[in-house]
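ligand=magnesium ion
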Amino acid sequence: PGKIIAVTNQKGGVGKTTTAVNLGCALGVLGRKVMLVDADPQSNATSGLGVSAAAGASVYELLLGEVSLADVLLPDVSENVSLLPAATCLTGAEIELVGMENRETRLGVSLKPARRGYDFIIIDCPPSLGLLTLNALSAADGVLIPIQCEYYALEGVGHLLDSINRIKRSLNKKLSIEGVVLTMLDTRTNLAQQVAEHVREVFGEKVFKTAVPRNVRLSEAPSFGQDIFRYAKRSRGGEAYLELAKEVIARGG
Amino acid sequence: PGKIIAVTNQKGGVGKTTTAVNLGCALGVLGRKVMLVDADPQSNATSGLGVSAAAGASVYELLLGEVSLADVLLPDVSENVSLLPAATCLTGAEIELVGMENRETRLGVSLKPARRGYDFIIIDCPPSLGLLTLNALSAADGVLIPIQCEYYALEGVGHLLDSINRIKRSLNKKLSIEGVVLTMLDTRTNLAQQVAEHVREVFGEKVFKTAVPRNVRLSEAPSFGQDIFRYAKRSRGGEAYLELAKEVIARGG
Ligand SMILES: Nc1ncnc2c1ncn2[C@@H]1O[C@H](COP(=O)(O)OP(=O)(O)OP(=O)(O)O)[C@@H](O)[C@H]1O
Ligand SMILES: Nc1ncnc2c1ncn2[C@@H]1O[C@H](COP(=O)(O)OP(=O)(O)OP(=O)(O)O)[C@@H](O)[C@H]1O
Ligand SMILES: [Mg+2]
Ligand SMILES: [Mg+2]
C-alpha cells in the first residue's frame, strides 16, 4: 500500500502542479486515499487547494526534523485527500540541506511511517534537479513525468532521466518510471503533433494513453482555491485527469 | 555603457528564455551590441540559438574561475549578438558554489571587464531563487520580470521582489526593476484579462506597454535553432519583441 509517485520535470511550467493536484484529487474522487506532498517553495499546490501557505509548519520543518508528520499534515483538503503543505521558506532548505546528514533521503524517512494509511502519496516537485527533487526521487516508487508539447520541454528530458538513473543506482533501487503524460496538448499546431510523436517514439508504452488538452478551466480552478473536480468537474480538463487516474490505478496502484 | 539586465522569475515556464533571446536579438536588429548570458542549467537559450551546449567551456567554468570570458564567449550567434553559453553541468554549480568565497558575486566580477564592449548584457535565469539567479541579480543594473497571465504566475511575484530587495540592500545597491512584461497574453480569456489588470495595479508604470501575445511562431523558432527575427520576422511575436526592445532603449538603455 501507499505507492509514492514523484511528479517531476526540471523544465518550468509544464504542468507538474496541475497534474499533482488534479491527479491526486481524481484518485480521491475514485475512492482512493491520497496524501499530496507539496515539495516546491512556490507552494502552488498548497494555494491551489485554497490553503494559506504561511499558516503553520510545513514540509520545511519536517525535512529539518523539527516536527513530526502528524504535526503538519492537513486532512481532507479535498475528497479523500490530505495535504502536506509547503511554505516559501523551503527556498532556504536547498542551501541548508547541503550541509546535513542524509540530505537526499530525509523526505523518504519522514513519509515511510505514513504509507500504510494511504493508497497513493503524490509529491509535487519544483522546476529543478536540486535537493528537494532528489529527496522526492529517493522517497518515490515511481516517477510521473509531465511533458508539455513544446520544443524546450523535450530538450531537458535526457537530463532528467540521468538524474533518475543516478538516484536509482545509489539511493533507491526500486525507483522506476510510472509514466509520461502529455500536457497542454493543442492538437491544432504542427509543433505539438511533432513533439507528441517524438515522445511516443522515445517512451513507447510508458506514455499514458490520456493526454491532457489545453483547457482554461484548469488554469482558472486554482484562482478559486479548488481542484478541477470542485470547480468544473465536467470540463475537458476534469475528464482527462479522471481518465489519467484510472490508468494509474490500472498500472498497479 | 553595457547595461546589464537579468531576466528572472522563479515561476517556471513564464517566458524568461523566450524573452531573453528575442529581446536580445531585437536589440541587435536595432543596431545595439548585445551579449546574451545563459545562466540556466537547462541551456535553453543556448540551444534555442542553434548552439550545441556540450561543445566547450561555459558559464560554469567561468563561475568557478577556471576560464576567462574571452575563452567561452561565442561571437555573432545572431546580428550584433554574442552568447555566453550554458551547459548542463551548471546544475552542479548551485551546490558547488555554496562553499565558495563570494559565491553570490562571481558572475558580476567576470562580466565587469566586458561591459565597455556592449550596449546590453542580458542574463537568462533558471526558474529558482538559488545561487545562479542571485549571481545574476548581483551583477545586474535592472531586472526584467516576465509574468504569464495566469494565477500561479501572480502568486510568486512577492517572493521575487523580496529577493530583489535583499540583494539590493546587501550586494548591489544600484539594482532596480527595469520593467515587467506580460507574456503569452491570450486576450480571449477572462483570467488573462484579470491577471493583466492586477499586474498593472501592482506595478503601474513599470509594466511595459508592449504585451507579448501567445504566438506559435515563438515556440517553433527554437526548434530550428533560430531567434524569431530569423525564423518569422513579420510574425506577431517578432513585432512584439521589436516593440519591447524600442521601449527598453527609450527607458535609458
Ligand atoms: N492543461 C492545461 N490547460 C491550460 N492551462 C494549464 C494546463 N495545465 C497547466 N496549465 C496552466 O499552465 C501554467 C503552468 O502549469 P503548472 O504551474 O501546473 O506547471 P508546473 O510545471 O508546476 O510549473 P513550475 O515549473 O513553476 O512548478 C499554470 O498557470 C497552469 O494553470
Ligand atoms: N508568447 C509566446 N507564445 C507562444 N509560446 C510561447 C511564448 N512565450 C514562450 N512560449 C513557449 O512557452 C514555453 C515556456 O517558455 P520559456 O521556456 O521561454 O519560459 P521560461 O520561463 O524560460 O521557462 P523555464 O522556467 O523552464 O526557464 C516554451 O515552450 C516557449 O516556446
Ligand atoms: Mg509547479
Ligand atoms: Mg528558461
